[in-house]
Design goal:
2,3-Dihydroxybiphenyl 1,2-Dioxygenase, domain 1; metal-binding; MMCE/EMCE_epimerase; single chain
Amino acid sequence: MDHVFDHIGIAVRSIDEALPFYINVLNGVVEDRYTSEATGVEVHVAVIRTDEKVIELLEPTNKNSPIARFIRQRGKGVHHIAYRVEDLDVAIANAREKGIRFLEDTLRTNARGRRLIYINPISTDGTLVELCSYPAK
């Protein structure tokens, strides 16, 4: 199964303060903005496209959200790298066969219909990696 680079997630304190760099310097275009208040997510998201690359700016909606904790522990910056797979369930099963561990409580469908799960950074030498799949169009 192919794993295709999908996007990079960047933790920011304020999307509005971060956006000018991505728009004015990188010539990005905001494709979407939304908020997810789902428990364990609690984040504002801005989806920015620069050429064929996608960046998600992630702003915590409260001080206890995972992104807020990330910023407290590691500071602003790269939160995760995401890879798109054709079938998320198959990709998870294949990875588990290879000893990959997942953050089980992160398996979900986001506000835009993307199914995703995060791989436990223990399995990736410290990098948070998201596997995701999109609904058929």
